[in-house]
Amino acid sequence: MCIAEHKQVKEGVVTALQEGFAKHNVETKVITANYVMKHQAYQTEFESVDAQGCNAVAFYVANWHWDLALYMSYANIWVKDVEQTNTIAQASYRAGAGLDKFIDAKEKIIELVDAMFIQVEEQKAVTDKTKTAI
């Protein structure tokens, strides 16, 4: 799995993503990427040579805000095939307005990675069930 580095996001997010994927026995490689906001969505670019050996690419955005302390207010992670034609999984987090917004960002990123693996397993189960029914 390649992780497309988003240089405008805190460095710890990449480390948390690596740990989250490692938890599921997925090796990662960090590659340089360009994230550009167009039409209220990030368009991403990377050199295809950098993604050689990767089955998929993980992209991410995360925002921090200040309210008594710095906290992660938003995170979005999505995984696409290397050609960027199909989204394999996606998970998001948005902080609430109460004190519960002061979460451990690393733990939340790992939790989002876990949620994406659940999505993939559920999709696989549906596909397998459909194949069996045919």
UniProtKB/TrEMBL annotation:
<protein>
    <submittedName>
        <fullName>Sbal_3080 family lipoprotein</fullName>
    </submittedName>
</protein>
<keyword id="KW-0449">Lipoprotein</keyword>
